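Sample entry (404 residues):
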Amino acid sequence: MKRHTRIISLAIPFLMTGILNTCTEPPEDGRIILENNLSTLSNRVTYVNQAIEIDTTLQTGGLAKPAVDPVSLVLIAEVDPPTIDGQVLQATDIYIKKNKAYVSYNMIGEPYLGAVDIFDIKDEEDPELESSMLFTDSDINGLTFKDNYLYLAMATNRDEFDSPAVVEKVRVRNDALTDETETFDVPSWAATDVEVTGNHLFVTSGADSGHVTVIRLNNDEVVFSYPVEDARGVATDGDDVAVVAGTPARMVTFDYDSGELLNDYELEGASIDFSKSTIEIHRKKAVLALGDGGTQIICLEDGSVVEQIAPPVVDDLDPSVTVTNAASTDSKTLYMSNGEAGVYVAYTRDKFNSRDCDVDDLQLIGQFRLDDLESVNAVKVDDDYLFIAGGLGGLKILEVTEED
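Predicted structure, serialized as tokens:
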């Protein structure tokens, strides 16, 4: 069974180094199921080409509204979630790099089941699902890609590891997933997120006995592993690594070369157990989704809250299903996934990756909900695309046009 029992942490608050426990044996029969047939994969994709209307009638909570909508959206495609033995998976994370988008999935409740999709997105109006991989023994909670390898943050029921939290490294050949894998053992009950830069892999795991673990990829050596209770998400700008944690919310920053703890900032929110939080770094600022703490823009230099957008209050929905699960921006427009309340959109005059901690005139534009979108779990924007992970409602791919 998936274990969420509270346990006593035996971690001690100093840096630890060593060689990882890894498994490179060929996958057991039936553990991994590959699908690289384009005709079969295309059956999961429905092309729509429908303009999305943003509802601008929101209460703004003190944030001004722009006179003209600075962004327009078109729903290009809807993607059915993968299924294993009739059990429907839910999308959990999205990673976009160049002309590819990578999407991870897990199973709500029992058993451990997961999947990964690869999309070719070079044609803005015709994204193509070109490879898929199912796991019959593991949830996938996050993913990243570098140099022909996918790195998957997992919780597994495989008994050859010290704990259920693992990271699986998957070889990608000619844009297709393969069963050439290597698995790294990390502490706690689930690996919650993963990031890679240079020669280092950053992994968060939690909730109980949570850690941030940094692995040197050329020799699988643990650079450092530091206890961070309920570590939920990780991001890096190439110099420092920042981790978002919960119950209660924290942002912890490290120097990844030395493993030195730089800062540990206490924040408000992320107080719901076993929930999702995300973090993005844009130069001097971090964009955090903190569940019941909404979206918060944090200055990396001093941990101050530059801006905050509370989770929405919707008359016909319980507040527990309208928390902020994820937030993403790549220029001036900020997208926030608020569960069953849908996607909320905000805008600033200056780009989020400006050289200071200011956010110039943040404006709440509005929100939108898509048909059959039971709960928005993740959102990721990159250039002309907005990917929305809609839980059991599947994946939505939107084209973004941002006005000057």
